Amino acid sequence: MTPTSSFRTRVKICGLTRAEDIDAAVSAGADALGFVMWPGSPRVLDLERLAALSARVPAFVTRVGLFVDQDPAFVRACEAHLDVVQFHGDETPAECGRATRPWVKALRMRGDIDLEAAASDYAGAKGLLLDAYKPGVPGGTGETFDWSRIPASLTKPVILAGGLDASNVGEAIRTVRPFAVDVSGGIEQAKGIKDPDKIHAFVRQVFLAQD
Q: Start and end of every N-(5'phosphoribosyl) anthranilate isomerase (PRAI) domain (predicted)?
């Protein structure tokens, strides 16, 4: 999990619903953009909107789709407009492995979770996204968790999520040294409506934490 001193933590801006927010995230220097395809979210997109927004993303910025225990046929249809699939529900390793794109597995930090075992179980994942646990909520809790629970020996790249914003992301990076950080609510004016100033402030703090 621990990168070398020259390693740069990547930034994923998630829950994008508007073209202008994509432009703000790209101009700020985001490495990846997240699109929520789960209908239980206030930030959900339909397939048509996903296609339109993903077409706006320039080369070398990764398009990530978020799914929660959804129909594989729907995931497959969305993959035409995505570079990476993020499974945020109770999908088994075999179910995740049906993706035609590289995939990451989101894990909620329950009290009894064994991250080393999860990394072994989800061996095909390109990374593990770690989020706060809140009963009945698959993600986007807006809450942090105890970062010291992440073992330094974890072999999978860690994407750190959960309650991050410009005020705490620097500390998060210095503490965890994650491969990437993921933010949604911490850069919003309202659910699904991003604030360009907050986006730029967040990315700036990521960069400053690595100087």
A: 11-204
Distance CA 151, CA 178 (A): 11
Q: What is the pLDDT of residues 109-150, one digit of tens each?
A: 998 999 999 999 999 999 999 999 877 666 666 789 999 999
Question: Residue ranges of the domains in the chain?
Answer: 10-208
Of 14, 31, 165, 182, which is the active-site residue? 14
Marked catalytic residue, from 21, 31, 131, 182:
131
d(CA 49, CA 67): 15
pTM for this structure?
A: 0.93
The yes-or-no answer on residue 78 being catalytic is no
Q: Which residues make Cβ contacts (< 8 Å) with residue 180, sequence separation at least 6?
A: 9, 10, 11, 12, 31, 32, 127, 157, 158, 159, 160
User: Does CATH number 3.20.20.70 belong to domain 10-208?
Assistant: yes
